[in-house]
Amino acid sequence: MAVRNSLEPAVHQYPLTEDERLAEAERILGHRFARREWLIEALTHRSALRGRHRRASNERLEFVGDRVLGLLVAEWLAERFAAEDEGALGRRLAHLVSGPVLAGIAARLALPAVLAVAPGEARAGVGKRASVLADAMEAVIGALYLDGGLAAARDFVRAAFATEMANQSAPPKDAKTALQEWAQGRGLPLPAYALISRAGPPHAPEFEIAVTVGGERVGEGRGRAGTKQAAEQAAAADLLGRLAPSS
């Protein structure tokens, strides 16, 4: 009898009950939780907390998972590209743990189907936003680490990121460098970055950055992330994506 890959999304024809949602999440993650409260917390968007004082959102687990993911991907890269220097490995790492990559993997695994989001936000598509999915990916990795240790987190990361790792034929340029080279190659001013907003609690801030080249003559990119540096990278990647058809 063929066994279906645990990372292959299941198809459901009806809304999931709470138990079904958690069981599906465990199937996606390939791990049965000894303490399911970690999983519940990892899947709970802050919008779902209204009136539920006994639950916590996934923001704290996102903080843990971010560090665990960085360690596990760095470990994997050092094994796979043993001859590369720190700079090349750093560019690979930055790409693999970036928001767009995390969101893409989360969507591929059907993670939006098991996230707990308030009904109004769910109807508005909040549960499918790239930033929400990237945060949820980090949160579930944090939950795996706290429940099953590094081994459980490592197993999931290596299965979920296998395609992205296999596509790492050459160290990618970070988005800011690529955008700067694009501008210089066309005799344009260097990209200019501006802070648009800062939101969220002190332990989990979210920055929104805008980037332009030559004012808004070329276009504008925007990015959100937990640090200014990461938000600048996301903004540069956004603008590069807009420029791609005409580059």
Summarize this structure briefly.
This protein is mainly α and 247 residues long. 53% of the residues lie in helices and 9% in strands. Helix 3 crosses helix 7 (130-160).
Textual characterization of the structure:
The structure is a single chain. With 247 residues, the chain is mostly helical. The protein folds into two domains: 18-166, Orthogonal Bundle (Ribonuclease iii, N-terminal Endonuclease Domain, Chain A); 175-246, 2-Layer Sandwich (Double Stranded RNA Binding Domain), CATH 3.30.160.20. 53% of the residues lie in helices and 9% in strands. The protein has helices at residues 18-29, 36-42, 59-80, 86-96, 99-108, 119-123, 130-160, 162-166, 175-185, 228-243; strands at 192-199, 206-212, 220-225. Helix 3 crosses helix 7. The radius of gyration is 19 Å and the shape is globular. The model has no long low-confidence stretch (mean pLDDT 85).
What is the number of independent domains? 2
Structural class: mainly alpha
Under CATH, the topology of the largest domain can be stated as Ribonuclease iii, N-terminal Endonuclease Domain, Chain A
Strand content: 5-15%
What general outline do the C-alpha atoms trace? globular
Identify the CATH homologous superfamily of the largest domain: Ribonuclease III domain
